[in-house]
Design brief:
Blueprint (H helix, E strand, L loop, with lengths): L1 E6 L2 H14 L4 E6 L7 H6 L4 E6 L4 E7 L4 E5 L6 H20 L13 H10 L4 H12 L3 H18 L7 E8 L1 E2 L11 E2 L4 H22 L3 E9 L7 H14 L7 E5 L8 H9 L4 E3 L7 H6 L6 H13 L5 E7 L6 H14 L3 E6 L2 H8 L2 H4 L8 H13 L3 E6 L10 E5 L6 H8 L4 E4 L4 E5 L5 E5 L4 H6 L1 H15 L3
Parallel strand pairs: 1-2, 1-3, 6-9, 6-16, 7-8, 9-10, 10-11, 11-12, 12-13
Antiparallel strand pairs: 3-4, 4-5, 13-15, 14-15, 17-18
Helix pairs in contact: 1-3, 4-5, 4-6, 5-6, 7-8, 7-18, 8-9, 12-15
Length: 492
Amino acid sequence: MKIKIDIDRQRFSYDIYHLIQAFYPGAELVMRIGDHPGENRAADEESTPDLTFTIRTGDGTFAFMSEPGTIRETIGYNVDAPSAIQKNQLKKLVYTSIAKKNGTALPWGDLSGIRPVKLAEEILAGGAGPDEAAGKMTELYCVSAEKAALACGIAALEEKVLAPIPLADGYSLYINIPFCPSICLYCTFGSNPVGQCRDLVDPYLAALKKELLAIRSLAGEKKLTSVYIGGGTPTSIRPDQMDVLLRFLAETFPMEETCEFTVEAGRPDTITEEMLRVLKKHRVTRISINPQTMNQRTLDLIGRRHTAGDIVRAFFLAREAGFDNINMDIIVGLPGEGEEEVNRTLEAVRELKPDGFTVHSLALKRAARLNLFRDVYAPISFENSDAIMNRTAESANLLGMHPYYLYRQKNMAGNFENVGYSRPGRECLYNILIMEEKQTVLAAGCGASSKFVRGDGRIDRAANVKSLTDYLNRTDEMISRKLAAARASGLF
Ligand code: SF4
């Protein structure tokens, strides 16, 4: 389906685009802003859309129309009101009009951002209790009662978890290791197959050390709250290489004062006794072993190149090595997986009794990458539903877990969310800090992005290049970028 959005004002266009996209996942959207056809000029001029939405914003009146269709709505707005208020009014008009026309509601209402918990937190900060705040979220943004309660419950819990931590005086550290044993077909992280670039691992670690030394001198006396090594799959490198990296961290940073030290050990085929011994020796407190699915057919289909049995074996090895905070990630909406397949995965995860459990909905961007291989996937469906999301929440509940962080992605199948659950006291601090933008995160490695969180909530960013070879060639430039952003923030 092709949809044209004709809007006369640039400043509302981004949010309106994503709101309409949420109603029509998978549709081709072409946007015309004022007299400008936008990036999809060729498509815009060459084919006729199945549906056109027109938005006019002049003279204190928002007008929203569809062609063909029944939408002809107008509302007045205060031209002197702040832009954010005007935008919310327009989004509400567009949302309620399409919901009425299609007879559908979206679980997250007219919210198009990826951090609904931040809004819940703002409402709670105004003095409302969780129930009242949830009601307000529904009233303001048309969010379903269930999702509003989820966001407000998480916001209240996060506040409790973060209360004892001196966030303003500290920072967190993120290190990216961009290697994996094989590349999953839906991967959008730009990871590299470690088998084909073994000779780049040591140079990469050397470049990382250089960047980490710069971070260390930038941080000075600030406290190190949490450390997160992600990827990629960090445990794809050899145990002796991991040992060198972690020893360097211990010698360079005040690791003894950190509240949490996570290493993603996502792929079970990278987890060995030796690797676990290295992680334990360097006081890693939390690891993540990510099955994504426990159905062998799907694992084969998405290119994971390990068995469901490998996941169970890796999990017990980690328990035997003494890890008492193990998270497991699953993805719902994988090709060919419906409620029955997800239930099978959930049962297998429940048997293992992890300490954390993160549920990701497959974003359509990733599904689109799977579509590149449509010869293989043509007869296979991508499914996600309320029922499936409810099963995942029930499983977390049966494991004695509560939801502690949440985020959404653009163009997510079914307009759902990603939710992290954990047993009480096993919440991942770093996940909360990065998602709610509560603390400065200094990041090292290719594709890593540093965020400088100012006292007034404003954020400065410094992103490293994504490509491994660019990073190796331009490490000094990445360091300079970070230092410039740090200076601009006034925090360092
Ligand atoms: S494990 Fe994650 S980072 Fe590695 S290839 Fe698969 S999706 Fe990408």
